[in-house]
Amino acid sequence: ETYHLSDEAPSIQSLVEQAKKLYDDTFENSSDISCAVAPGRVNLIGEHTDYTLGYVFPIGIAFSTACVGTCSIVKENEGECKIISVNSDAPKTISFKSCRDMKPLPNDDKDSWSNYVAGVVYEYIKLLPEKTAINMEISICGDVPLGSGLSSSAALEVAVATFLEVAIKKEFPNFDLGEKKDKALRCQSAENNFCNSPCGIMDQYVSCCASKDNAILIDCRSLDFESVRMADTGDEKPVFVICNSNVKHSIGGGEYPVRVKQCAEATKILQSVCGDRIKTLRDATLEDVEQAHKKRKDEGPALMDDLIYKRAKHVVTENKRTLDAKKALTSGDWKSFGALMNESHESMRSDYEVSCDEIDFLVETAQKFEGVYGSRLTGGGFGGCTVTLVDKSRVKDLCEHLKKEYAAKYDNLCPCFESSPGVGAREIQLS
Ligand code: ADP
Ligand code: MG
């Protein structure tokens, strides 16, 4: 399927035009310009389950990132990349060499966004034949809010990866770039290795393979995905509303790696109790976790302490909720879907401890509102966004209510918007 700029939504057209304008203002070259776009995402349920290879259930959203520019594969050991972004504080070009022994760039904060791009370039250099490199000049423009849990980072990585794949296909038409999951894995490696973020595969994968009107159930172990259509229950069909708390607690960035480690610790303990049928937390049942928590070594302390127990309990119950949510979505059982969202939030709040006051307030305010089926924190946590399932006819009132209550309590804005499942990364023909 070929996407033409003229067929895209106005918001995408505007992103591409802004990126193109910055490109023209910055770089000389004006022929052979190509363009790729990738969306951010909102996870409906299945939070903090991807890095233990469980299930996640996100949708692609209308907010996206566009990458516009020129790229060539050169038969040299070293190339040069010049990048600029509309969204960085000081839009100036950042240059780096592309070569086989690329490293994360010296990382003063202001320019750190370039590591997301450099990481992706590195993954593609590794794929290309020896003694080839990448020359590129690109401009980036996105409207995914940065650092709000809607995955602007994956949108950036996947837009750049999609852009590079276009250039590689042009130079080597028979080059095997693999499937969408391979692209997602490359982008995940970029973020893991260049951005110091031990993230799972969810964000990059859904940005690659999202499709209109479908939620994407991803099995993070097999890396199979299933596009799951929301049941059509006529006019009664509810919609998803995203609400951005506009807070990002500084503790958040540091806690994510701590959760990753706690899950690894839980896995080790479960292996010692249940044997090697437990490869990751994905393989454990709630009974396994309860058993490890009760088990004591020679009447000493429990093998699994209370904290690790709570972390493991969130993950194993969340995996089950995610599979149940898929059934509820396909059968149009909105009540059950909403109840699962509410349970997921409670589990993230009290067991995984990744919520915060502002988010709890938005979730509880939504949950009490007439026409709402369920609401929860979405994304990594400690701020960011909530996602709420609500009757279509109640969307406007809900958004107004949330904004009013939030302003009264926190003297802050919380932008709200309806988001139906949108399409994943694609090349866009500019003319
Ligand atoms: P999230 O993915 O939830 O938005 P992250 O902290 O993972 O939050 O990623 C945000 C970072 O990604 C930004 O601080 C910036 O470095 C980078 N980024 C994302 N989109 C862009 C963009 N359009 N231009 C420049 N940097 C971007
Ligand atoms: Mg991110």
UniProtKB/TrEMBL annotation:
Record family assignment: Belongs to the GHMP kinase family. GalK subfamily.
Compartments it resides in: Plastid, Chloroplast
GO BP terms, alphabetized: galactose metabolic process
PROSITE patterns: GALACTOKINASE, GHMP_KINASES_ATP
Keywords: ATP-binding, Carbohydrate metabolism, Cytoplasm, Kinase, Magnesium, Metal-binding, Nucleotide-binding, Transferase
A molecular-function term among this protein's GO annotations: galactokinase activity
Protein name: Galactokinase
Domain Galactokinase N-terminal: 23-68
Pfam families to which the protein is assigned, alphabetical: GalKase_gal_bdg, GHMP_kinases_C, GHMP_kinases_N
Domain GHMP kinase N-terminal: 121-209
Superkingdom as given in the UniProt entry: Eukaryota
NCBIfam families linked: gal_kin
GO CC annotation, single: chloroplast
InterPro entries (UniProt xref): Galactokinase, Galactokinase_CS, GalKase_N, GHMP_kinase_C_dom, GHMP_kinase_C_sf, GHMP_kinase_N_dom, GHMP_knse_ATP-bd_CS, Mevalonate/galactokinase
Residue ranges of domain GHMP kinase C-terminal in the record: 326-407
